[in-house]
Design a protein that fits this description.
CATH topology: Tachylectin-2, Chain A
Number of domains: 1
Distance between the termini: 24 Å
Structural class: mainly beta
Shape: globular
CATH superfamily: Glycosyl hydrolase domain, family 43
């Protein structure tokens, strides 16, 4: 049976469906935020001078410039092709210049300026899944023209089963940041394929900003105790600060928006290609919301990256990050820096309260119902097993069909009608509960 799922905010695809297969569509992992985002597609620019170069993480330095890293190209105007390079961006969002400073091997999605010193995480020594091989910290005291490597690295042999670490960005040269620590997010490695990693876990570590080159200084988030984040120097005890089992995670960026007093986490989800999603999440602290440890983040945006204007017909858009230098003082107007068709790209946007033009709210389109020939067990009421709607002790395709046939309805039967979180409505969050328990 072929089923076309027409749900805005869900992954749109045609799938071959049998009662015991997992449907291929997605729902946001966390409840909707009161903050929404909209993009000004007319402002979108891709800079041909950077053709062939991707990634582009940015940090705002003490000299008022932004420093960035590019991969697999010549950066600003060089005809050669480099594994990675560091460049300097000077000026405003509508009129800036770029200058190449340094080239080397590997890739980077995390660079930061603190105390006039640049630090940069390098993942692997080549492209694609080389990023899983090791994560090494570099340091520059010359504003990016020369770099020194740490004598150690994270890799899968020493508990470093994560990749492409990224720094939490604050203001100019870390202004307004934590007085003691740098914070670093890194998605977990689940397999060797260079694609979104599922299940999706993002880990958080911190290190004194006075000496991040010392491995002994690192501490890892291990969860909460009484709503207070816990830290441990043993990397094997780390726990994810962000989880999306169904949709996965990949390359990630993070910023503190001083105007809105919110932390924003941006990650790549579903897949790398044109069906890929962008997820933007917010919280009041780097580790989420300590007053809601079961759901520590809220969803600002969960959508196909092409559908919200981050790309046109081109085949690639990846790694999106907010530029704090180009964000308004009230935090509401921002510029995204990202990869568009293997070029440095920018787009302006707005963060505001209330519904926006690009949110993860499911559409009011009713999914196609399925008529079953098998006999469905009698539904007898709420069930203890999450995702088991029909009470047969299994979470399978029959339970999915019950959810689907009640989708977007207000019901009072709870889990027996597909309302697994028992909030009175059958929606995408109930689907996530079903999916996370499927075949159990």
């Amino acid at each position: 049976m072929k089923l076309l799922l027409l749900l805005t905010g869900f992954f749109l695809t045609t799938v071959s469906l049998n009662l015991y297969s997992v449907p291929v569509f997605a729902a946001a992992p966390y409840a909707q935020s009161s903050i929404s985002v909209s993009f000004d597609t007319a402002s979108k620019k891709s800079y041909s001078i950077t053709s062939g170069s991707d990634n582009w993480p940015v940090t705002w330095a003490d000299d008022d410039a932004q420093y960035t890293n590019f991969g697999d190209g010549g950066g600003f105007g060089d005809s050669a092709k480099y594994s990675q390079g560091v460049a300097k961006i000077s000026g405003g969002a509508d009129n800036f210049t770029g200058q190449n400073l340094w080239t080397g091997n590997g890739k980077s999605y995390g660079i930061i300026s603190v105390g006039g010193i640049l630090y940069m995480w390098v993942c692997g020594n080549a492209s694609d899944n080389s990023a899983y091989s090791f994560q090494k910290l570099y340091k520059s005291t010359t504003h990016g023209t020369q770099w020194a490597q740490a004598s150690w690295q994270f890799d899968q042999s020493n508990g470093g089963n994560f990749f492409c670490p990224t720094f939490l960005q604050y203001g100019k040269d870390y202004a307004g940041g934590d007085p003691s620590y740098l914070y670093i997010y890194a998605p977990g490695i689940q397999n060797s394929t260079w694609d979104v990693q599922k299940p999706g876990y993002i880990y958080l570590m911190r290190v004194p900003k006075s000496d991040p080159m010392n491995r002994a200084n690192y501490q890892f988030f291990t969860g909460y105790s009484g709503g207070v984040p816990q830290w441990n120097s043993n990397v094997s005890l780390k726990k994810p600060v962000f989880t999306d089992v169904a949709n996965g995670v990949m390359r990630t960026s993070a910023v503190y928006n001083a105007g809105l007093k919110k932390y924003f986490l941006v990650t790549q989800q579903i897949k790398r290609g044109t069906g890929g999603y962008i997820g933007i999440y917010e919280a009041p602290a780097p580790w989420g919301d300590p007053n809601n440890v079961q759901n520590p983040w809220k969803t600002v945006l969960f959508a196909n990256a092409w559908s919200v204007g981050l790309q046109g017909a081109e085949a690639k858009t990846v790694f999106w990050n907010f530029s704090n230098k180009w964000t308004s003082a009230d935090g509401k107007n921002f510029v995204f820096v990202y990869t568009g068709a293997d070029k440095l790209s920018t787009i302006k946007g707005t963060l505001s309260a209330g519904p926006g033009t690009a949110t993860s709210t499911p559409a009011q389109v009713t999914p196609t119902k399925i008529t079953l020939s098998p006999t469905i067990p009698v539904i007898t009421g709420d069930l203890a097993k999450p995702g088991d709607a029909n009470g047969d002790g299994k979470v399978d395709g029959l339970d999915y069909v019950i959810w689907l046939n009640n989708y977007n309805k207000s019901i009072t039967t709870g889990a027996a009608g597909g309302d697994f979180d028992k909030n009175g409505k059958v929606d995408g969050l109930d689907y996530v509960i079903w999916l996370n328990n499927y075949n159990k």
